[in-house]
Fold this protein.
Amino acid sequence: MADAHNGSPTTFAPPRLSKSKYLSGLQCHKRLYLEIHQPNLATPPDASTQAILDMGTEIGTLAQQRFRGGVLVKSGFRQREAALAETSALLQDPTVPAIFEGAFEHDGVLVRVDIMERVRNGEGESSSWRLIEVKSSTRVKEVHMDDLSIQSHVVRGAGLQLDATCLMHIDTEYLYHGGEVDLQALFSIEDVSEAVTERRGLVPERLAVMKAMLLESQAPMIKPDQHCHTPYECPFWAYCTKNKPPRWIYHLPGKKEIVSQLVRQGIVTIDDIPNDTRLSDAQRKVKDNVEWVSSELGRILRSLSYPIHHLDAETVMLARPRFPFTRPYQSLPVQWSNHIELESGEVMHQEFLHDEASDPRRRWVEALIESLGETGSIVVYSAYEESLIRQLAETFPEFKSAFKAIVKRLWDLLPVLKSHYYHPAFNGSYSIKSVLPAVVPSLGYDDLAIQAGAQAAAEYYRMVFLESDWVERDSIREALLRYCERDTLAMVELRRVLREKAENLA
């Protein structure tokens, strides 16, 4: 194929689409075009995104267990003919109550359906079916209707009668009591046939437009905008924005409505924004693009009392609850790090990691209470630790008084930074991953095997529940410890540098 961007005429064979490609086309025709013709331009999913994808795969496998006697179509997603033939044979077998990952093709679209449940009709009548899409989410979303509309369009077009089109998702109200997980209670199945029917009427025309667009010799000229992030992050964002200036208007933080208004006015960069434009405080700081230190910063930093603890907690959220009296996606604390700065300037480090496939909460709580002691400020970065501690105080009433005292000692560095310091390299973000390299260039996360919370949670799950090789388990354990340790060391160093900046200002 000739380069789709060099202007030379190219003739493409009619492309075969899938449900994911159809959804990409609904989000942006250019995204679909690039996925079909130049997929190498996409940015691969990062570790955090991959963790979410892996969770979805796990949930799909678990959902199949709810349909006893169901049969999985074993042919892979690239084995089109084999998968279609295998599915056809299962459809004809009346003893098969459900088909998992069945393959169906119609109108130039191939779909793999999570679950096709056979509906028993009267004797002599052919079977009808219930199409069920499985999601790891906890509620029905708008994008799910488009997902189901293309699937039902293809399945009906392939000659099957659908009695219902449903979405199956996790019910977070389910309380696990131990023993076997109650799959009937863990999953909620919602009949969304009516909403899907409305969307399905739009499918043929949408497909026709997409197919015609895909036969063009060049990708459509669509400018990056809010659609690039809704309903999913587009993997071609980096490619489509690679020639944008460093101070491109879309780098302005906050609500994107103001960005769209500015774009309509012809504004290209943040520096072009008129001075009389109404901006939020955060947006104004980004526009001014200068380092700023509040006159109050020094006083606020001096309000801390020694020994100063620096606390970071890591949690795991299990879609399938494994410990009695927990719910799906409940935050379970598995790790903490505490850097303790004494008045002498000496810094000590204590840490905890629950590395067994058992309920981590009590051990986590007891070790943390001992480490924090009864004196000194406890520096955190966000309100997450406080909400976690309050949740655990309800779970373990015997520790309620200790946790109440701990909550009173918490000191959140994040709102202090937001109100009293800004550095141009933040680019409007106060994430510690953005703040740290700007304020403490010698300390970052690039040298770590684990660099984000979602990745840490996924690796913890792999270490505890999946990995059997002790060498690999030990490697993951070490990576988890170093990641959590970096978060609390970051707070120590941020405080030190901010204190120096405040003193220089005075």
